[in-house]
Specification:
- It holds the Pfam family PDZ_CPAF_rel.
- InterPro entries: ClpP/crotonase-like_dom_sf (IPR029045), PDZ_CPAF-rel (IPR056186), S41A_metabolite_peptidase (IPR052766).
- By secondary structure, this protein is of the alpha+beta class.
- It has a domain at about 460-550 and about 615-680 and about 755-770.
- It is built from 29 helices and 26 strands.
- Bound molecules: 2-acetamido-2-deoxy-beta-D-glucopyranose (5 copies).
- One 2-acetamido-2-deoxy-beta-D-glucopyranose binds near residues 213, 214, 283 and 287.
């Protein structure tokens, strides 16, 4: 098969890839609103060419482009859009109410004391989230902000920027609903020869090089790499600057999974940091080119027709600010309502078109990737053989995401391993570029399909907040006589949450013996936590009932054998983005099985870099999940003190001010088995990859070039630009017996999910980074 090479003719389409992605509204919140959707040209807006109010200019631009350019996102010059936002005056009381309302949810942020006082090798400055909120609050009190968007930018930076945590995000309404910012170029970072430090180039120059092409030496008059690093320090959702650096550039993986041609151009959290009116690039040949920055409109449940000036701009895009009463109706756990709300964050930012494509019967190859041997229906996992001399023994498993149908994903991995063994492949490259996580137990299952005989070790813990404890105090006694099984039981929801002490395994895979044994609280580094715990993959309610299959190694999927033998035949390939469930899977592969890793790219400086740089927290809750748990708990208590605690978890107002995505909080720390004593969360542990490689121009065009370089370095004695992977003295000779003991197993009975994926139980098992 031939790699689908990228060429200049597809550039236009390619550069617009982020447009639909960034414009899908959080659909769960849209149901009752009349959206201003793009139409085929029948919109009847009256352009007002004489308008001078910048928000009116924006409105007219929106409608005139809707009617003239079908299917593409309206855009305008960034400077006028920004003027519109800054023309909106501060609405102080609702702003202060929001800051106060966020506190009960941020209390759950599990690593906050480490963020406040990080280990010496943590690359970013300390952040005290609560102190920062207090500063914004007092600035508001003292009328220090001259516009609504200014305090919203401070809040966004405090929550979504400074902590560099992909599981922690709040998207203020005025800042994030109408527009996102776009720079007029997509960039790449490549090494000219594969060994010299990478330089920055404009993507077009790589796709269609000419004699005159030159690399970028300055951006806005600042050294180009320094400029990019500055942006990363402000907006990256990764805990390591090398990963943040990589995400600013084009790669096939970023385009396929992050729906971005590099965050420098647009996307990620960078999209809401105002880039200024213009961007200028200075090239090594002395040429400087300056272009205006762009504001890209969002589609959403908003109607620009209602915008007549700055005040109506606020009314339209900050609707939540105008609600006064709590949305909590008496003990409302109506399941439709739960679903609608929980859905939204994960539906965003999938464009509708890509979702429908993913549901087609015949899965399509991934754009920019070769023809796969196996691919699942969501294009989350796919397998490839490298059809070139010298690589006949190598199989490549690409896991762009762990968010798929559990059953389909498991089947695809199993089918690919069987095909690879059958075809005599003895080496496996696992490409985890751009992987932001997904279903937690999919990470467990994939590990156990590769190493069925190694029991994963993934200790984790929660912050013992007063609201967390209140839920535990109600759920735990309720579940005294509950036994998980396949088939519905009334108490499935409360009893399969962390808040039932009988649920989960302890750190040595035994059962907790009491409420105190699990919930403590235990003091570590001056903060209060639960005991260490692990998921129980044998729990039939969590797994069999939901996924109609078992995690490999459990139930019907015992007795599997290794498809590729030992860790020396496998290598993990990263671009640093790996986060969330990807970090859980990676921990098992590295610490559990001893598999080596390769990290690509990074900042232009010598030395080894990390591979797993995304958030390493092991669970994220939308604030709505906390509210739903609290609502459920309220059904089972009359205790006034507990009721008072639980009522603090009403996120109605807080979420209404973040309609772009529901706010999310990292609620669970992963702790390496070797750090149980110290208690330092994995998020704050530096873990260098074994080998570093730079991207080359050929690799930008084709992922297959990256796989070949990785296989070379991992299995064939190839060099790394830093570090290296030693070859085993004697490789086990597999070739003699083609199937070498790998037993084929029946595929899991295909079923699909029994429970809706957004139900309370399912929600807790999905752990994905928010970009
Ligand atoms: C455009 O939309 C109008 C109103 O929905 C419809 O009547 C018309 O047929 C559409 N035209 C095209 C070309 O799809
Ligand atoms: C940006 O553009 C706006 C509107 O065109 C203008 O008022 C402002 O002065 C510009 N800012 C800079 C730094 O040039
Ligand atoms: C300098 O390099 C840039 C970027 O490749 C190119 O667009 C420009 O034409 C070059 N200028 C000259 C004078 O060769
Ligand atoms: C886990 O539970 C088992 C059985 O209750 C117990 O023997 C073991 O000591 C516990 N391990 C820890 C670390 O608490
Ligand atoms: C696994 O192997 C054991 C021993 O051969 C056997 O008793 C058991 O039934 C097997 N389990 C499964 C799920 O195949």
């Amino acid at each position: 098969m031939k790699p689908a090479a990228l060429n200049a003719t597809v550039l236009a389409a390619l550069l617009s890839v982020s447009a639909p992605a960034s414009a899908t509204p959080s659909s769960g919140n849209t149901a009752s609103c009349s959206g201003s959707k793009p139409t085929n040209g029948t919109t009847t807006a009256i352009p007002t060419p004489t308008a001078t109010d910048p928000c009116v200019v924006a409105r007219d631009t929106y409608f005139s482009q809707l009617s003239s350019s079908l299917g593409t996102m309206p855009t305008m010059d960034a400077s006028t859009a920004r003027q519109c936002l800054t023309s909106v005056r501060v609405h102080k009381e609702p702003a202060i109410r929001l800051l106060d309302g966020l506190k009960p949810f941020l209390e759950w942020q599990s690593d906050q004391v480490y963020l406040k006082d990080p280990p010496a090798d943590y690359p970013y400055p300390p952040v005290d989230i609560f102190a920062e909120l207090e500063t914004i609050r007092s600035n508001l009190e003292a009328d220090k902000y001259s516009s609504e968007v200014e305090w919203q930018e401070d809040l966004y930076w405090t929550i979504a920027g400074k902590p560099h945590n992909g599981h922690l995000a709040f998207h203020p309404d005025l800042l994030t609903m109408p527009f996102e910012w776009v720079r007029p170029w997509s960039l790449v970072s490549v090494s000219e020869d594969g060994t010299s430090l990478p330089v920055i180039k404009v993507l077009e120059d790589v796709l269609s090089p000419s004699e005159k092409s030159s690399h970028v030496v300055e951006i806005n008059g600042i050294d180009a790499a320094t400029f990019i690093e500055g942006r990363v320090a402000q907006s990256s959702n990764s805990q390591d600057p090398d990963a943040g650096y990589n995400a600013m550039f084009f790669s096939q993986a970023n385009r396929a999974e992050l729906k971005s041609v590099g965050y420098f151009e647009g996307g990620g959290r960078e999209r809401f940091f105002y880039p200024g009116n213009v961007t200028s690039l200075t090239f090594a040949n002395g040429t400087t080119v300056q272009k205006p920055n762009i504001a890209r409109f969002h589609y959403g449940p908003y109607d620009w027709n209602n915008v007549r000036d700055a005040e109506t701009m606020h009314k339209e895009f900050c609707r939540g600010a105008y609600t006064t009463s709590s949305g909590r109706s008496a003990r409302n756990t109506n399941s439709n309502q739960l679903s609608a709300a929980l859905n939204s964050i994960y539906n965003y930012p999938q464009p509708a078109a890509s979702l429908s494509r993913r549901q087609e019967e015949e899965p399509m190859p991934i754009d920019g990737y070769p023809e796969p041997i196996v691919i699942d229906s969501y294009q989350a996992v796919s397998g490839y053989f490298i059809d070139e001399p010298g690589f006949e023994d190598v199989a490549v498993l690409v896991i762009l995401s762990l968010d798929s149908s559990f059953n389909d994903f498991q089947t695809a991995v199993q089918d690919f391993f069987a095909a690879a063994v059958e075809a005599g492949k003895t080496k496996l490259v696992i490409d985890l570029q751009a992987n932001g996580g997904g279903l937690i137990l999919q990470g467990y299952d994939t590990f156990r399909q590769i190493f069925p005989d190694i029991i994963q070790d993934g200790p984790s813990r929660w912050r013992a907040t007063s609201t967390f404890n209140a839920i535990s105090q109600i759920f735990s006694p309720l579940c005294a006589n509950y036994t998980p099984m396949v088939g519905y039981q009334e108490l499935d929801n409360p009893c399969n949450t962390v808040n039932n002490w009988r649920n989960d395994l302890n750190d040595t895979n035994g059962r907790f013996t009491s409420y105190i044994d699990k919930f403590g609280p235990f003091t570590v580094n001056g903060d209060a936590y639960t005991n260490y715990m692990e998921w129980d993959p044998a729990n039939p309610t969590l797994v069999r009932q939901n996924y109609e299959t078992d995690v490999t190694g459990y139930g019907s999927r015992k007795n599997f054998t290794r498809p590729f033998g030992g860790p020396e035949n496998i290598v993990l390939l990263y671009d640093g983005y790996c986060a969330s469930t990807c970090s859980i899977f990676s921990q098992f592969m590295k610490h559990g099985a001893g598999v080596k890793s390769i990290a690509m790219g990074g900042r232009p400086r010598e030395g080894l870099i990390q591979g797993v740089d995304g958030v390493k927290g092991s669970q994220v809750y939308p604030t709505r999940q906390m509210k739903n748990l609290a609502d459920l708990a309220l059904e089972y208590t009359e205790d006034e003190a507990l009721i008072k605690e639980l009522k603090r978890l009403d996120d109605t107002y807080v979420s209404s001010r973040s309609p772009y995505q529901l706010p999310v909080v990292n609620v669970r720390d992963a702790v390496l088995p070797s750090e149980i004593e110290s208690g330092v969360p994995t998020q704050f542990i530096t873990e260098l990859a074994d080998c570093r490689l730079y991207w080359t121009e050929a690799m930008i065009q084709s992922p297959e070039e990256i796989w070949k370089a990785a296989a070379q370095a991992a299995f064939k004695g190839g060099n790394c630009v830093a570090g290296g992977i030693a070859q085993p003295v004697k490789r086990p000779q597999y070739a003699a017996s083609r199937l070498r003991g790998y037993r084929k197993h029946p595929r899991p009975a295909s079923g699909g999910r029994v429970r809706p994926s957004n139900s309370l139980i399912m929600q807790q098992m999905r752990v994905k980074v928010s970009d």
